[in-house]
Design brief:
Blueprint lengths: L10 E3 L9 H5 L5 E3 L5 E4 L9 H4 L5 E3 L5 H4 L5 E2 L6 H14 L7
Parallel strand pairs: 3-5
Antiparallel strand pairs: 1-4, 2-3
This protein binds iron/sulfur cluster (2 copies).
Organism: Vulcanisaeta distributa (strain DSM 14429 / JCM 11212 / NBRC 100878 / IC-017)
GO molecular function, one term: metal ion binding
InterPro entries: 4Fe4S_Fe-S-bd (IPR017896), 4Fe4S_Fe_S_CS (IPR017900), Fe-S_Ferredoxin (IPR050572)
Amino acid sequence: MAEKTGPFQKVVVDQDICIGCGACVSVCPYQALELDENGKARLIWDLCKDDFSCVPVCPVNCIWKTSEAPDSAKGKANWYRFSKPLSDAEKKEFEDWKAKYKIAWAPA
Ligand code: SF4
Ligand code: SF4
């Protein structure tokens, strides 16, 4: 299968609703989700390639395509990180993504 190319819309997780079941982590074919230090699902932003296998498996419906996510979830902190320092091209994609989807928080 050919590697998918971006830009990708990614997904948003509401960690306040997440019960840490790990289902989304298990089905992600790109290892773009993990359980964080609090046992909540966290997106690894640069690894997500928009196949959206994670969305339907969540038992509490707290993970969405970014285009369909509530603003309340987008405004929370710590629900995503990067796997590595972003390249210049990735930085531009990230800034475009934040602006397009009105993402209010970014990792330090
Ligand atoms: S959309 Fe796909 S690649 Fe992205 S986190 Fe969900 S399962 Fe993983
Ligand atoms: S499937 Fe839903 S509840 Fe389970 S870890 Fe993922 S986001 Fe949290």
